């Protein structure tokens, strides 16, 4: 088996479920740290800042700091400011998105925007939809942090950011550019943060459609774990095939 020099780790369903660490996950991350293997926590959740994500990881027993976390909100911010621009942005989202945009140099505005960025927003309403639609129809670029239409919760499946973006797309007639998993863009940014090449990096996750598809399309090997949204039967019926598949992270051999 190949020895990997860098790891990109999904969070929910891979390392933890809700507020509970998944058995074996803490040991897995501990081994990465012990062996000095660079690793990055990669999440489509745009509602939290990297610092808040790292705080939750530490609370659940995973060593983490903000620099080891990269979010779909940061990917959106980097997309808009990658050439040194300071665009005017109308943002629909929560603290994680607003903070990422401002830290990258975006100017948050309510009108005459260069771009409209949509992240998960549990206060989404008609007025926000109207403003986004008007700005996009006036020429603003439309960016979505991720296209997940539903998100799992204790109540069941709830509307995800993809559902919000679908409403904006329907009203504006323009489809968004997404920056989160499975888009290759966020994986490219993750590799730059890690300092490793695609060939020597492993993507670890529980979701065939986001983690495994995204890692594959970005040229990386992938490890699928059956601790989240995917079970072994899904692999047989999908055209997306992981490089490796395990019941959980306890079975991984680092060599």
From TrEMBL:
<feature type="binding site">
    <location>
        <position position="10"/>
    </location>
    <ligand>
        <name>Mg(2+)</name>
    </ligand>
</feature>
<comment type="similarity">
    <text>Belongs to the HAD-like hydrolase superfamily. NagD family.</text>
</comment>
<dbReference type="InterPro" id="IPR006357">
    <property type="entry name" value="HAD-SF_hydro_IIA"/>
</dbReference>
<feature type="active site" description="Nucleophile">
    <location>
        <position position="10"/>
    </location>
</feature>
<dbReference type="Pfam" id="PF13242">
    <property type="entry name" value="Hydrolase_like"/>
</dbReference>
<feature type="binding site">
    <location>
        <position position="12"/>
    </location>
    <ligand>
        <name>Mg(2+)</name>
    </ligand>
</feature>
<dbReference type="InterPro" id="IPR006439">
    <property type="entry name" value="HAD-SF_hydro_IA"/>
</dbReference>
<dbReference type="InterPro" id="IPR006354">
    <property type="entry name" value="HAD-SF_hydro_IIA_hyp1"/>
</dbReference>
<feature type="active site" description="Proton donor">
    <location>
        <position position="12"/>
    </location>
</feature>
<keyword id="KW-0378">Hydrolase</keyword>
<dbReference type="GO" id="GO:0005737">
    <property type="term" value="C:cytoplasm"/>
</dbReference>
<protein>
    <submittedName>
        <fullName>4-nitrophenyl phosphatase</fullName>
    </submittedName>
</protein>
<keyword id="KW-0460">Magnesium</keyword>
<dbReference type="GO" id="GO:0016791">
    <property type="term" value="F:phosphatase activity"/>
</dbReference>
<dbReference type="Pfam" id="PF13344">
    <property type="entry name" value="Hydrolase_6"/>
</dbReference>
<dbReference type="InterPro" id="IPR023214">
    <property type="entry name" value="HAD_sf"/>
</dbReference>
<feature type="binding site">
    <location>
        <position position="206"/>
    </location>
    <ligand>
        <name>Mg(2+)</name>
    </ligand>
</feature>
<feature type="binding site">
    <location>
        <position position="181"/>
    </location>
    <ligand>
        <name>substrate</name>
    </ligand>
</feature>
<dbReference type="InterPro" id="IPR036412">
    <property type="entry name" value="HAD-like_sf"/>
</dbReference>
<keyword id="KW-0479">Metal-binding</keyword>
<dbReference type="GO" id="GO:0046872">
    <property type="term" value="F:metal ion binding"/>
</dbReference>
